[in-house]
Amino acid sequence: MNELFLTMFERLGIIVMIAFVLTRFRFFRQMIYQDKLGSKQQFAAILFFGFFGIIGTYTGVSFDMSTLDFNRWAAATGLSSEEAIANTRVIGVVMAGLLGGYKVGIGAGLIAGIHRFTLGGYTALACGLAAIVAGVLAGAFHKKNIKNKVSYAFFVGALAETIQMIIILVLAKPFDKALTLVEVIGIPMILANGVGSALFLLITKSVFNEEEKAGALQAQKTLRIADQTLVHLRKGMGVESAEIVC
Asked: Which stretches does DSSP call E strand in 42-151?
């Protein structure tokens, strides 16, 4: 488990780096500033976060149930019937629901979930379904001023991953094998996805702070110019005063 902890948080660094790059795009900045997204923006957000969820799958660690060994990277071509993936897929889906609402969360969950299902493996159906459930769960927290509450993001990310573990126990058969899998990857995945969701929201807040700081500086500059020109405008608008103001 300790090895998986280190590997998961190592991969989390990759996810956070990608998240930081993605938040530089104008589309993302426009999206997070609006309380309600239009149809085109919702579609773009679904693709955006769905793709992010797929990245979380591919940066995961595959786990072989027959040997109880980890492979450093998830197989891009598919998994055997004895393999599962410890991953950070939930981060993209959770952020989709938190920032975009039910429609965006479910849409991103469908993309990430169907992709995960096509990879196969022991938990294909359970993990695919869990991605959709994560979108619904995150959408429930959309209107709770989540943009300013990093702790909420951690809670929702960890809760979504906990629910995924429960779904694996319910759907994956035989139960003994599912229980072994959850015992090995459960806690590392819950913590990694919780921390990852919180870090993603923290990066999103930094985008807000940058824009607010830029707006404050511009307003300060405007007021300073106005203050400097008032003394000349009190004398009335004439050629001489206009030249001084300019």
From this structure: 61-64, 69-71, 83-86
How far apart are alpha carbons 13 and 20 in whole angstroms?
A: 11
Q: What is the pLDDT of residues 118-167, one digit of tens each?
A: 998 889 999 999 999 999 999 888 866 555 678 888 999 999 999 999 99
142-147 contacts at long range (C-beta below 8 A, 24 or more positions apart): 142/97, 142/98, 142/99, 142/100, 142/101, 142/102, 142/105, 143/101, 146/98, 146/99, 146/201, 147/32, 147/99, 147/201, 147/204, 147/205, 147/208
Per-residue burial over 46-76, b = 16 or more CB atoms within 10 Å of its CB, e = otherwise: bebbbbbbbbbbbbbbbbebeeeeeeeebee
Strand, coil or helix: what is 74?
coil
Extract the tokens encoding 128. Answer: 């695919």
- Where are the alpha helices (H) located in 141-174, listed in sequence order? 150-171
How far, CA to CA in Å, does 52 sit from each of 75, 94, 158, 211, 240?
17, 11, 18, 24, 60
- Shortest CA distance to 76 belongs to which of 133, 132, 121, 123? 121
The encoded tokens of residue 242 equal 């206009």
Cβ-based burial of 219 (10 A; exposed 0-12, middle 13-18, buried ≥19): exposed
Which ranges of the chain have pLDDT less than 50?
none
What local confidence, expressed as pLDDT, does residue 233 receive? 67
